[in-house]
Design goal:
Elements lengths: L2 H11 L3 E2 L2 E2 L22 H11 L3 E10 L2 E9 L5 E7 L5 E6 L14 E2 L3
Antiparallel strand pairs: 1-2, 3-4, 4-5, 5-6, 6-7
């Protein structure tokens, strides 16, 4: 395990527990490791989760850092009180909510087959 992965794992284990859900930082598979870009991000994991919780009141379940066409983004899943799951995409440099959709299934949305309806903010 390289040094940055150890640091990320240590940070997660050390207490990135928010409202009962442990937040994980993971990079999607690509030709380069997206996790290395997290150090250039203006928005931290904690801030991304806070922004997502302002968009949808609920419990954070998962957070993931990646790049999408060169744009660094945080993808945060929030579960509301009705057990509806929302996927919130946040620009990792500006904190702007880029996408706010309901998650109809737990399919990896990268394949284009995942469900979900876009919500208007």
């Amino acid at each position: 395990m390289n040094k940055i992965k150890k640091m990320i794992a240590t940070a997660v284990i050390s207490g990135l527990t928010l409202t009962g859900a442990t937040m994980l930082v993971q990079a999607k598979n690509s030709s380069t490791n997206d996790a290395l870009s997290v150090n250039k991000s203006s928005i931290t994991l904690e801030k991304a989760v806070s922004i997502a919780q302002k968009a949808v009141m609920g419990t954070p379940a998962k957070a993931e850092f990646s790049t999408d066409d060169g744009t660094a983004i945080w993808e945060v899943e929030i579960v509301d009180k009705n057990q509806q799951v929302y996927d919130i995409e946040i620009d990792a440099m500006t904190g702007t909510v880029l996408k706010h959709v309901t998650d109809e299934d737990d399919d990896d949305d990268d394949d284009g087959k995942g469900g979900g309806k876009e919500e208007n903010d």
